[in-house]
Design goal:
mainly alpha, 13 helices, SQR/QFR_C/D, membrane, transmembrane
């Protein structure tokens, strides 16, 4: 009887040991990210460049976030009570947010007047993350000892925080994000249409009372999301559950980068943060080697925002007794619409027009 139980336990330990290293290919992908963008730009803008190579490099650049999501999912299906597995899951989530983190770092270096060092600093930071992770993994208890992480679900004291996170999300969506995405979508009908819609919307969200309140709510949204994310790392999750946490980390980094770019970089220098600024007009996002990083940054930002909302709706459905299978089907349907919307906005930003 005892002998028949040993192999499954050994398999679980061995599997957890392997999954604990899932962060390694994710970090390697993050290190390759700026080089993939450089290949895309060079091949697209060179006289003898290859369009196929450019498209392939851009797809692989998008794939960095996808690999981070996969790493978070795989580690999230394993024994998350093991410290090394949880560490792999955290790093994988961080890799998912590589596009906005690269933008944020680039803006900071520009403000510091450090030119031409983006790749070097990015490489040094990720190597530091890898070294720190290795040190911590070797310092943590072995795979044969599961650390205590408390209950298998987030503690009840987070219930109020979850409600606040949801309420502020609805407020941001109604006051700013919904109209803002609609404004971007209107660019498909021409830049003039976009500018007219933007001027109308700015009366609301650039109001002297509304704007600082909105920035404060966004700050609360990011902080509460990060607080809620931490205990979820110690809980097993399916793919949609992992998509919710990974998209949350991406959005936290995206909002940090976006607010920094708008208020520190643009407005400080008196630049109007209009459609031309966002799309690097008149040359476009593909012409400048720095600006190409904004393509995955924006495109994934829109999709993962919608994905985060879809997964949140799924969680609410399940909490109110909707069968998981039915909630999943509805969520996948909403995600499909999210893909179409994000693709349409990305196309508008790259210059495609209906008329």
């Amino acid at each position: 009887m005892t002998a028949s139980r040993d192999p499954p336990a050994l398999t679980r330990v061995t599997g957890s040991s392997l999954i604990a290293w899932a962060w390694v290919p994710c970090v390697m992908a993050a290190l390759a990210y700026p080089h993939l963008l450089a290949v895309f730009h060079n091949q697209l803008n060179s006289v003898d460049g290859s369009l196929g190579l450019a498209v392939g490099a851009l797809i692989l650049a998008f794939g960095v976030s996808a690999l981070g999501l996969l790493g978070a999912f795989v580690s999230g299906r394993s024994d998350v009570q093991r410290p090394r597995v949880r560490m792999a899951r955290r790093i994988s989530h961080l890799v998912t947010a590589a596009p906005p983190l690269f933008v944020f770092m680039g803006v900071l270096l520009f403000l510091m007047r450090v030119e031409g060092m983006d790749v070097a600093v990015w490489t040094a930071l990720w190597l530091a993350v890898a070294a720190a992770t290795l040190m911590q993994q070797f310092a943590e208890p072995g795979d044969g000892h599961a650390a205590s992480v408390g209950p298998s679900v987030p503690r009840r004291r987070n219930a109020v925080l979850r409600v606040m996170h949801g309420v502020t999300a609805v407020a941001i969506l109604v006051v700013f994000l919904g109209p803002h995405l609609g404004n971007h979508l209107s660019a498909l009908w021409g830049d003039e249409v976009h500018h007219r819609v933007m001027d109308m919307l700015r009366v609301v969200y650039r109001n002297g009372l509304v704007e600082p309140l909105l920035i404060g709510i966004i700050g609360l949204q990011v902080i509460s999301g990060l607080v809620l994310w931490r205990p979820k790392i110690a809980v097993r999750a399916d793919f949609l559950g992992t998509l919710q946490t990974a998209s949350g980390i991406y959005l936290a980094a995206f909002l940090l980068a976006h607010v920094n770019s708008v208020f520190t970089l643009a407005r400080y220098f008196g630049t109007d943060t209009n459609w031309a600024w966002a799309t690097s007009a008149p040359n476009g996002l593909t012409a400048d080697p720095w600006d190409v990083r904004l393509i995955p940054h924006y495109a994934l930002g829109v999709f993962l925002l919608l994905a985060h909302l879809c997964c949140a709706v799924r969680a609410v459905m399940i909490a109110h007794g909707v069968p998981v299978a039915r909630a999943n089907r509805r969520t996948w349907g909403l995600l499909g619409l999210g893909v179409l919307l994000s693709a349409a906005i990305a196309s508008a930003m790259l210059g495609w027009r209906i008329v």
